[in-house]
Write a structure and sequence with these properties.
CATH topology: TIM Barrel
CATH class: Alpha Beta
Distance between the termini: 46 Å
CATH architecture: Alpha-Beta Barrel
CATH superfamily: Aldolase class I
Largest sheet: 9 strands, parallel
Number of strands: 9
Strand order of the largest sheet: 5-4-3-2-1-9-8-7-6
Order of helices and strands: HEHEHHEHHEHEEHEHEHEHH
Helix content: 40-55%
Number of domains: 1
Structural class: alpha/beta
């Protein structure tokens, strides 16, 4: 039984805070194009500087995801990836890495089919640290929340640009781990980020919670990551990484490209935060 998972997300954010740095959270889809490739990609992301790994659970109708991640889900499902195999993949990752937090991001149907208790227990045993269920709002999450808390897993919720101040407060009361602010209206990777608006909204969220606030959906370049790192506790990058996998000539090429791109993101974020500290 893995016993360290309840503390990894909190510890990672605390360590970065003492260093004056924001977390880089990277997303890829489990099983795209295979389980073995995904394991190699996760390890490459960590080598490049990823602080938290977000692993997508492929689903046939990923309503919040743009075309890039939808295609990744299709490739993974065609290859036989399932929720049980995603957990096995995390178990394999934990053989060599007990320190990097892993968050699963997906949709409710596969979890309901497995059963909340069975899923939470199995996820904790595999070494998962938190779960973000896109289509499970806080108002409907009470039963799932109980199982997550009992298993020591963080339950992460999304906040949208259209969310009200009251909604911010209500979601933050139930969230654990960190809060995920969606930086654009629409699906993942769909539009450029308005950094000024994001900065304002992050400040509003921080006024009602002590949890770290991460920003994702639309972060595609080191420059954007650096700008958001000056306002948020975490920068979340997904579609740009999935595109690298999709377009690479081989799994080896994808592994190298992922590591290099993540390093460029992390370097830009570190530079931006260091400049803030010096000013």
């Amino acid at each position: 039984m893995n016993t360290t998972h309840p503390y990894r997300i909190k510890a990672r954010f605390e360590t970065l805070a003492t260093q004056g740095q924001a977390a880089l959270v990277t997303f890829i889809t489990a099983g795209d194009p295979s389980a073995d490739a995904t394991l190699a990609y996760l390890q490459a992301l960590v080598r490049g500087g990823a602080d938290i790994l977000e692993l997508g659970v492929p689903f046939s109708d990923p309503m919040a995801d743009g075309p890039t991640i939808q295609r990744a889900s299709e490739r993974a499902l065609d290859g036989g990836m399932s929720l049980q195999k995603v957990l096995a993949l995390v178990t394999a990752f934990r053989v060599t890495d007990q320190r990097t937090p892993v968050v699963l991001m997906g949709y409710l149907n596969p979890i309901e089919r497995m059963g909340y208790h069975t899923f939470a227990t199995a996820a904790a045993k595999a070494g998962v640290d938190g779960v973000l269920v896109v289509d499970l709002p806080p108002e409907e999450a009470a039963e799932f929340h109980v199982e997550m808390l009992a298993a020591g897993l963080a339950q992460i919720f999304l906040l949208a640009p259209t969310s009200s101040a009251a909604r911010f407060a209500a979601v933050c009361r139930q969230a654990t781990g960190f809060v995920y602010y969606v930086s654009v209206k629409g699906v993942t990777g769909d539009k450029p980020v308005d950094v000024a608006e994001v900065t304002s909204r992050v400040a509003a969220i921080k006024s009602v919670t002590t949890l770290p606030v991460g920003v994702g959906f639309g972060v595609r370049t080191p420059a954007t990551a650096a700008a958001i790192a000056q306002a948020a506790d975490a920068v979340i990058v997904g579609s740009a990484l999935v595109e690298i996998i999709e377009q690479a000539s081989s799994e080896l090429a994808a592994t190298s490209a992922l590591e290099g791109f993540v390093r460029s993101l992390k370097d830009a974020m570190t530079g931006a935060r260091s400049a803030m500290g010096a000013s």
